[in-house]
Design brief:
The chain is α/β, with parallel strands linked by helices. About 40% of the residues lie in helices and about 20% in strands. The chain is built from nine helices and eight strands. It has an eight-stranded parallel beta sheet with strand order 1-2-3-4-5-6-7-8. Helix 8 packs across helix 9. The longest helix has 18 residues, at about 100-115.
């Protein structure tokens, strides 16, 4: 069964939360999902969902677009829950003109993850090089990281592979204009790639520009099968094995 390593079931834009929860719980092709926080409030909600639904695990963190008024001590407190498997999603995003503030939050949260012996989930919107610069100048994740929904950048990818960091593939690899993303798929070693829907965002073909659903994980796996010339079961098994290696608290 598949492990979807990045969903936002309690997203700030998602109104039909219960429908998505039910879809995950009843799909016998989905082993588990990691529900990812965007700020403290969605992180708390994610933990609550994971305690009520056995397929759900949580990542807690402050997204670079939500860096206002957040306190870091709460992350330590929330991370004591056994179903919290990562700090994330954290990183840098050029959508807002406050990159220096984002960097402070990012560095602080990597330190928290290292102290808690947890991996991190990276959000990098046109900022792969800036994030690598932070790794080299300030602090690296000690317990692994994944660049979720990786934006294609072969030079940065070489650094990530060299350091044993994971790359997560989402709906974009199914798009007709995804040539650079397909090159990334071909370059990433088998032991370093994961799958995600990023639901309710970034729906794959044939649902592009629609609300993404958890069941759409199969389209991403099918595309990986096509590119890597492997069976569905092989990709499913490999990505689930990789997910458990990175997110050690998954059961």
């Amino acid at each position: 069964m598949a492990i979807d390593t990045h969903v936002h079931v309690n997203s700030l834009v998602l109104k039909n939360q219960e429908e998505h929860i039910q879809e995950i719980n009843t799909n016998n092709q989905i082993e588990s999902v990691i529900n990812v926080g965007l700020n403290l409030s969605t992180s708390k909600e994610s933990i609550l969902l994971s305690t009520k639904n056995h397929k759900f695990y949580s990542a807690i963190g402050i997204h670079p677009l939500y860096t206002e008024q957040e306190d870091f001590q709460s992350l330590y407190d929330l991370a004591q829950n056994q179903k919290v498997v990562a700090i994330g999603e954290i990183g840098l995003d050029t959508t807002k003109n406050n990159l220096e503030e984002q960097k402070k939050y990012f560095i602080r949260q990597i330190i928290i993850a290292n102290n808690l012996q947890l991996p991190v989930i990276i959000h990098a919107n046109n900022t792969n090089k800036e994030i690598i610069e932070i790794f080299e100048k300030y602090v690296k994740p000690k317990y692994g990281c994944v660049f979720h929904c990786f934006q294609p950048d072969i030079e940065s990818l070489k650094y990530l592979i060299k350091n044993g960091y994971y790359i997560s593939f989402a709906g974009r690899i199914t798009y007709k204009n995804a040539k650079k993303s397909l090159e990334v798929v071909q370059t990433v070693p088998d032991e370093l790639f994961l799958v995600e829907t990023d639901s309710p965002y970034i729906a794959p073909e044939p649902f592009k520009n629609m609300r993404n659903r958890p069941n759409n994980i199969k389209y991403i796996i099918e595309k990986l099968c096509e590119i890597k010339k492997r069976s569905y079961e092989e990709i499913e098994e490999q990505t689930s094995k990789n997910a458990r290696r990175l997110f050690k608290k998954l059961k």
